[in-house]
Structure formats: C-alpha cells, structure tokens
Design a protein that fits this description.
- This is Septum formation-related domain-containing protein.
- Keywords: Signal.
- It comes from Petropleomorpha daqingensis.
- InterPro entries: Septum_form.
- It is a single chain.
- The chain has two domains: about 170 residues, no CATH class; about 90 residues, no CATH class.
- Strand 7 and strand 8 form a beta hairpin.
- By secondary structure, the chain is an alpha+beta fold.
- The strands form three sheets. Strands 1, 2, 3, 4, 5 and 6 form a six-stranded antiparallel beta sheet that branches. The chain has a three-stranded antiparallel beta sheet with strand order 9-11-10.
Length: about 280
Amino acid sequence: MARWVVGLVALAAGVLVAGCATTVVGEASPASRSGGDAVAEPEIGTCRLITEDQTDDPRNPPEAVDCAQEHNAETAEVDDTGLGEDDAYPTEADLEVEDGIVAGALEDVCTFDLLTQYLGGDDLDEPYAFFAPYLPTEAEWAAGARWVRCDVFYGYFRPETTPGPLAGALAGADAAAYRSCYFGTPITWDVGPCSKPHDAEPIGASADVPDGTPYPADQAARQALATQCADDAGAYLGRSVSSDYLVDVYVGSAADWQSGPIAECVLVPAAGGRTSTSARD
C-alpha cells in the first residue's frame, strides 16, 4: 500500500480536471502512430514507452509506439485542461500550485479507480501497474492542443515492459501477471506480479489494530489479527477460502509498528513455500 502513498505525494508535489473524460476498457490498439494532427486528442489504448524520468514529469509526455513493439504503457483516459487557446504553456511553477487549474486537471485525470477499471479489475485488486498524467508537448500546445491524458503503465513503482495488453488484463487468462503479490516475510517484503513465485497475496483489506496493541512478533500473535480478515478473504475470492490457503497479516517491522501499526490482510499457501498463481483466478 506504500506505493499509493508515494503516488499521491508525487501528484501533490508536481504532477498535480474536471470535464468530459473518455475511458474505454478493452483491447489495446494493435498499432499506434506517433505523428498526425498535433491538436487531436490522444486515442484511448495508444501504446507508449515511458522512461522512468517521465513518470513524474507531465511536461515530458512519451510518444506513441506500435503496440506490436516493446512498450510499457497505454493511454487510459483523456480530459481537458480547462485552459483557453490564449493561455500560455504551463510552467513547472504552475504545476506546483495545488489549487491551480493545471494541477487540478492532472490530479483528476489519473485515479486509482481508473487504473483498476482500465485493467478490468475491481476495488479489491491491487494491480501490478500504476499511472502518470501528461500535458501536450509545447509544440502541440502551440498548435492548439489543450488536453490532459492518463497513461497507465505496467510495473509497481516504475515502468516495466508489459507482457501483453493492459486494457482488460485483470479479466483475462493471464490476470496473475497484472496483479500484485508479496515476496518476503510479514516483516519485510518486495512486490512483484503474482505470476512469479511469491509468498503472499494482498486481498485489499486491513485488520483493525486497537490502540496499544503490542507488536505481533510471531505467527500466533499475527493470527489474533488475521481472524478479522476472514470475511474480506471470502469477498476477495468470491467464495470461502479453500484448504490451499491461510489468512495472515503482513505487519512490517517493529519500528514501522510504533510509527503507525498496519496489519494488511493476505493469503498465504497453507503448505508453506511459494506459489506462482493468484488465489483469485
């Protein structure tokens, strides 16, 4: 869940619309053009190749690439900046004005709901994907473009080459590759796609931690919290938890617990070890 906090901080700091938005969930376009009308709105499903330094730079939008080529992102939504044809191209200072028109447009065009909707998931999914909002280039702005767009990219913290189309991926046969799972222990872990051998799968819920609850240093202590997750696990799976899985909580380190206790509900293989599938599929 730390990834969401990082994303919100980034938006508030510098990638910070209301209006008519367009979102389409389905298959990405088989090919995308990088030229064409500079004023025209980007097409939903257009494939992109985002570099890591472009993910937090709305004034540096990635160009379109052919979807048959290596890519890591797709345009998921297009909106309007709310600025007129006589308005100058936004500066970096404009992006830092949190209640400004441009900052608001960039903040509103990319949302977590859009992310899961575009991938074909729901609010219990934690996609192995994220998003970045963009303005037109200066040349496109000079030609009259006033849109903002949201590009959804494959990867948890940074763009990675996508194994297939992002649109509708969580509803497809390879959904595990687009869902986030945890690699490590309840104390410290990394995040990767559920299609790779992993130790736990988050279910989109956390247990309530009463004030003063001591740090759950062992499995027995964690299970006292994990019992709260049973109903959430059933909702996540759409059925009762099978004998193949147990419910646990990932709690972080003792230092993390002292600064703000979080007990994130997860499913772990009942037999121990790792699995390379998603419990939800």
